[in-house]
Design brief:
Length: 407
């Protein structure tokens, strides 16, 4: 892998402008304010979900206390403050330092994933998935982080370095480390996040000058891997003459089948899909009213994975288009900044950040609308989840830092 000549179509992203024009580079303001607006919209609906929980008794007829019901929203408020601080700190550090330490962040990200795989102290398993490292904090409770979210940022930063250096050393070892990290995410299991991490790295490689032959090979292998994940459990079920549910990795196949016919799996793996589609469809033009949504009473993960469904039900098409428009504005600003970036690394990082947010948002919204199977992917900046929010805010800060650099 090496830095390749830029094509005419993407020369502004793949190469740096002249030194004389570098001081005129400015970060488009939309990239700075849209994350906060989206995060505040997310908080409104997370508090809406929390209030719903506050008014709903448990199986024993006992109502939860206020702090228990509102804890996710309150924690997200704290994470937003931490994310804002991370953006400021990352933006104040010189961009060259971020590039010079890209190897370190990739290695630390891999070590965090390996910690979960080995189930070392602090590793938390929920619903059969080991994705979090937790630490109890006095007066607050258990604080958790998700290493896979920070591995996204490490992936982006490392590939920007690899495709910006004139003669990068140890590149193939880094690629192997990145692929091993993706494999560890698959084992958690979290195939959706693994796919997004792959697309972030692949996107930077494409923008950095990856030959079309390699692009076709990579996309073909990725598509083949997805088909195998779906088909192999069906084949094993047929060969062994056993129910599909007993085959390894069958939950992926069942999610795909449920997407094709949600009602047939409504009482099982298709439950979330059906409730989400009802929520999105019942919103109409302007929604049923803020806080009046009914499906959030039944929809699991309404504050994170399926927050778009809650937004669509309560604010309708108008609110949904507002969120989609803000996400689109952020992605557009990333690519616009990439066009006018003063250096090649800045352009690659900004474009890669646009890929990260754009693809992640598309996958989440498609899931909530029933176009894709159920996924454990957050809606960027909007869903509850401290690790996802802080890593994205830090990425915006690093983008600002790189925009200040000169050739």
């Amino acid at each position: 892998m090496r830095s390749l000549p830029a094509s005419a179509a993407s020369s502004r992203i793949r190469s740096a402008p002249d030194t004389a024009s570098a001081p005129k580079a400015r970060v488009h303001s939309a990239m700075l304010w849209t994350p906060f607006v989206l995060a505040l919209i997310g908080l409104v609906f997370q508090f809406s979900v929390g209030i719903t929980e506050l008014l709903r008794p448990n199986r024993d007829g006992v109502f939860p206390d206020m702090m228990t019901a509102l804890r996710p929203a309150l924690m997200q408020t704290a994470w937003l403050a931490i994310g804002a601080a991370a953006m400021g700190v990352c933006g104040a550090i010189r961009g060259r330092l971020w590039l010079g330490t890209a190897w370190l962040w990739l290695l630390l990200g891999f070590m965090g994933l390996a910690w979960l795989t080995a189930k070392l102290p602090g590793a938390i398993t929920l619903n059969g998935a080991t994705r979090w490292i937790g630490m109890p904090l006095s007066g607050v409770g258990l604080i958790t982080v998700q290493p896979a979210e920070f591995f996204k940022l490490a992936t982006l930063l490392w590939f920007v370095w690899a495709y910006s250096a004139v003669r990068p050393k140890g590149v193939w070892f880094g690629v192997a480390l990145w692929l091993a990290g993706i494999a560890l995410i698959v084992l958690q299991p979290d195939k959706d996040t693994a796919g997004l991490v792959f697309l972030i790295g692949f996107g930077v490689m494409f923008l950095g000058g990856l030959r079309w032959g390699r692009v076709i090979q990579g996309l073909t292998l990725a598509a083949l891997g997805g088909v195998l994940l779906t088909v192999v459990p069906l084949m094993l079920s047929h060969i062994r003459n056993e129910p599909l549910e007993k085959q390894p990795g069958a939950y992926v196949t069942r999610r795909v089948l449920a997407t094709l016919n949600p009602r047939a799996y409504e009482s099982d793996i298709g439950y979330q899909m059906v409730r989400a589609q009802i929520a999105v469809g019942s919103g109409g033009l302007v929604g049923v009213g803020l806080g009046e949504g009914r499906e959030k009473h039944h929809l699991p993960a309404a504050e994170n994975d399926y927050i778009f469904a809650a937004i669509a039900e309560e604010t309708g098409l108008v609110g949904s288009l507002l969120v989609v428009g803000l996400l689109g504005l952020f992605v557009w600003s990333c690519f616009r900044n990439a066009e006018h970036a003063p250096t090649r690394p800045a352009g690659l990082f900004l474009a890669g950040l646009g890929v990260w947010v754009g693809v992640g948002a598309l996958m989440n919204i498609s899931m909530a609308s029933g176009l894709l199977p159920t996924m454990g992917l957050p809606l960027p900046f909007v869903s509850a989840g401290g690790s996802a929010l802080v890593s994205l805010m830090a990425a915006v800060g690093i983008a600002q830092s790189l925009m200040k650099e000169t050739p």
